[in-house]
Specification:
The protein has two domains: 118 residues, Periplasmic binding protein-like II (D-Maltodextrin-Binding Protein, domain 2, 3-Layer(aba) Sandwich); 102 residues, D-Maltodextrin-Binding Protein, domain 2, CATH 3.40.190. It is 35% helix and 20% strand. It contains eight helices and twelve strands. Strands 1, 4, 5, 6, 7, 8, 9, 10, 11 and 12 form a ten-stranded mixed beta sheet that branches. Strands 2-3 form a two-stranded antiparallel sheet. Helix 2 runs antiparallel to helix 8.
Length: 281
Amino acid sequence: MPVLGTKNLLICLLAIMGVCQAGSASAQTSDLVSHHALRVCADPANYPMSSQDENGYENKLADLIAAQLDLPVQYTWYPMATGFIRNTLREQKCDLVMGYAQGHELVLNTNHYLTSAYILIVPTDSDLAEVTQLDDPALKGRRIGVIAGTPPAAHMARNNLIAKAKAYNLVVDRRHENPIEDMLQDLSKGDIDAAILWGPLGGPLVKSGYSEFKVTPLIHEKLPPRLFYRITMGVRQGEKVWQRKLNSLIRRNQDQINALLTEAGVPLVNDLGTGMLQGIN
């Protein structure tokens, strides 16, 4: 039997140590994800996405994923504001956050399960009902509601629509303040002529409670910033095994996910944000 030289022996020992350390790290990462429940962190007052009574479409999506894993859903509720990820996912109070924009550095993103866009909402009988772009002359001089600091505001500024705009707060605790419902109510009362909202928020609210409104996805803007985003699920940084498992579940259940989102009223667009998803809406 050949005798290992000192150099070769050292290489073997380092290799063995590396495998052991990798296995230990993998075990530690795996141990963070519960095997007894799908632990989800969510905003308790972010309807139509999530709600503490579990009537939001993200709650239903969590149910779908949990059913595939043969696990119950267990929630940790926390308002979607500053410190959300730090105080939930990073504190290991959950293993999954639904509805996270692709590329967000605070989490490890799964593959996206939906692509959507900002929407223009106007009364169906309004002379703005045929508007599809924010540079349309028909919008000049109109009072338009927009969430302050969101991408559509930059387009409005470029098209000289800001002077008469009505801004609504961006970061709020929706248990106490609801600028999205306020905007839709103002549109109903005629206090504003049009509203611009993120599609996955505004679309379902219009479908469920404002049949007099028309929703138009803003997919024809030619200049930045973009108004469409790919939405993923977020897991803790480093949890690649868990991420891959969720990616597989998303891929195998995409048709069911699309059906769930469409039923809720979420406007789904193609991955390039250039048109509605074929066969949807």
